[in-house]
Design goal:
Layout: H1 4-9, H2 23-34, E1 45-50, H3 53-61, H4 68-71, E2 74-81, H5 86-99, H6 108-119, H7 123-147, E3 151-152, H8 160-166, E4 174-183, H9 202-205
Antiparallel strand pairs: 1-2, 2-4, 3-4
């Protein structure tokens, strides 16, 4: 089944109508995020799923008062590890071995290589690496959301450290990366809802080397 019709249907929704997304669909979106492929499988991020209107109001104030944040059904806040640690990496590989019923220590060679590579980076570079994994998860979420004919708009327009403070991300050693309001379009009041989708031509976008 092709996802192309869903991707043609979706757009960056500017106005939402407040209608709630069913829990069944929320679960499906979260499962798509959970199944996201990431570097070495580490999934160095956490996603906050916010339906509390008071918290959404607080976030709106640090996000340039963008209406979708409070008009949406759920607000997903994608956060990345602020840096890699031995404990975080070890936790993943312990889980990996347990889930695949492998002997403890089976993956030590690979684990130690990953650990050396990632922890040798500067702290800023470690966060950048983790944040790039977030965008893979964001893409998976956007695609699943579109296939369900639910609307969304990814946003980087917010003050990161103020959002981090609202969600107390420092306590979990996380930093905010991108937010994603999801819900349903208010087509009558969204001037973009019926506009033609505009993307680069294939000729501009792809280079074939044969």
């Amino acid at each position: 089944m092709s996802i192309i019709p869903a991707l043609q249907w979706r757009y960056a929704t500017k106005k939402m109508n407040g209608e709630k997304v069913s829990q069944k669909h929320i679960d499906s979106i979260l499962e798509a995020i959970r199944l996201t492929p990431t570097s070495s499988g580490l999934q160095p991020f956490e996603v906050f799923v916010i339906s509390n209107q008071e918290i959404k109001e607080k976030i709106k104030r640090v996000a340039y008062n963008q209406a979708q944040i409070t008009d949406c059904s759920h607000l997903l806040v994608f956060t990345a590890w602020n840096h890699y640690t031995v404990d975080r990496i070890t936790y993943y590989f312990d889980h990996y071995e347990k889930e695949r019923e492998l002997p403890k220590g089976f993956s030590d060679g690979y684990k130690n290589g990953v650990m050396k590579q990632l922890t040798s980076m500067t702290i800023d570079r470690q966060f950048e690496h983790a944040a790039r994994q977030v965008y893979i998860a964001l893409g998976m979420a956007l695609t699943e959301i579109a296939t369900l004919e639910i609307d969304s708009i990814p946003m980087e327009g917010f003050v990161n450290n103020e959002l981090d403070a609202i969600l107390e991300l420092d306590q979990k050693h996380l930093k905010s990366v991108v937010i994603l309001p999801i819900g349903y379009r208010d087509a009558e009041n969204d001037w973009q809802s019926e506009l033609k989708k505009v993307r680069k031509t294939k000729e501009d976008l792809f280079t074939f080397i044969e």
